[in-house]
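Appendix B, Record 12. Input sequence as logged:
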Amino acid sequence: MITSVEQDIVEKIDDLQENMVKFLQELVRIPSVNPPGEGYHQCAELLGDKLKLLGFDTQYVIAENHPDHSKKYPRVNLVGRLNGDLPMPTLHFNGHTDVVPAGANWTVDPFQGIVKDGKIYGRGTSDMKGGLVAALFAVAAIREADIELRGSLEYSATVDEETGGFAGMDYLARKGWISPERTSYVIIPEPFGPNRICLGHRGVYWFQIDTFGRTAHGSMPFLGVNAISLMGRILREIESKLMPVISNRITNMPVEPPEARYATINVNGIVGGQKGPSVGSPCVVDHCSAIFDRRYLKEESFSDVKKEIEDLLSTLAQEDSNFSSEVSDLMVVHPVETDPNTKLVQTTAQTIEELIGDSTQFVASPGTYDHKHVYNTGRVKQCIAYGPGLLHLAHQPDEYCSIDDLVQSCKVMALTMVRLLGIK
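Logged structural output:
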């Protein structure tokens, strides 16, 4: 049941709608594109200045020892804290400031934040600058309503989520900014929509396979071993033997869309041999490299997932003495899933149902997001993704976030905040 104090907060958010839209436009106009990692400092300063006005103590945490950090593209993370009467419980809002490149086929400027037909268009409006702004204005509404919280509040804007988050949320977690000792709950406002709570995601095994042949003159290929041909054999084995097996494995996690509940493997890229359209030297290719993206389920163990690849390569080597290959791990992310019976999930779900009138839908993400670092590195188990926007619009041309979604999600986050932390 919505209380009179909570109704006042809801009305404050309605009053703040115009400012919310303008602030999101301002944030979208910073092209914080990753790669390479542009505009991070400007995004952090814009958000940090707003946090200071709301009474937060702010710090800019730079991932100075991370290989992606450089003077030209500094990895600047923002962390703000608003202390309540008590240090705990603490609710932490986290979002990422980086966006993927705009790409082609836009009908509007991707970095202008154009408002049309009740929607804000631009790269990152859904994924996930809209979420950053909704969480920020949820706090602003609390302050506008002159409400002081018993528990404490944190807000972070981190970098590099689109490329793994290792200089962002993972860095914060490793440095102790996210931990059970200081963090009770984490809400990541990724674009799942106002009536959906995302509980986690599948696992990822990103790996590289190199094949090694023997060079020879291109006019006498029988004297060499072609590494591209060897890679072709691997691809055929994967398609004919591995894929039929894993495509029958299904998780009981509520992954959306439902097709993503099955285990999958994708070839992300292949490099080998002559480059470019010009006539090159006539040589048998002696090296080929391919990168694979294996999405695995919580019902699968990582050791078994990796062993399937190793066994496939071992079988090919046993069949042909000329077959030579090597597999290298590039990234391993274990599946995560928050218990739907936790206080964070149940409080957010109840708030959604009371405010919006819809039943809450629990989902899991087909791809990973920074939940993995909160859960696996930071060891904080009460973490969800909840925020405005539509997931299928992420990374698309003409990405947008509806203003209604922005406002509704802001209201849910504000009331969830009050209910979790309490009022003085």
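The chain has a mean pLDDT of 97.
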